[in-house]
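Pasting as-is:
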Amino acid sequence: MVGRIHSIETGGTVDGPGIRYVIFFQGCPLRCLYCHNPDTREPSQGKEVSIEELLEDIRKYKSYFKFSGGGVTASGGEPLLQPKFLTQLLKALKNEDIHTALDTSGFANLDTVKEVFDYTDLVLLDIKSINPETFKKVTSVDIEPTLRLAKYLDEKNKKMWIRFVVVPGLTDDMADIEKLASYLAPFKNIERVEILPFHKMGEYKWEALGYDYVLKDTLPPDEKLINDIKDLFIKKGLKV
């Protein structure tokens, strides 16, 4: 079986525990205003690879995984756009006793992707906002599939990290953030919430691709705002 990927990072340290082999899948249904990988959007681009090709390379890093508690992370793009390939890849990794993580927006038909989570140790779920209007403004898609997936993962008690990007003037409404924290508080499977400050490291890619980067005048959030948001999640009993 072959899949379509954009690129690979062999020494990742921010996409799950330990040292990670990060596979960036090609294709994404979202159009996030702050996306730092806009070159992964189009499903027909990237390159085709087989599972065995990936495994042959991944095996070279097993000692690093063992030493650091790391493994392989499927990122993107949106890996759930290729559920059959993703499932078989994760299954093969589990057969190699390699820790697996999935970085996802959660925007997928749940019935077609459930098998993926049978071979996923950790899900990194990006929730852009709990406010449906803000979520739609940020991503151009509806919030419901993401929330449905979050509830399903809680029911399965699948370990989950929540990722929330703070964009001044866009996702920093404190009332909305408090609603998000209150929504997440009852979940039993959330190990941590990652508060990620907005950055513009991908802006040059937008320019190169001829896309209009509407956040070019937006500045990163200041430290006080980040700390206030952290405190809000912590007060709801969530680890940040």
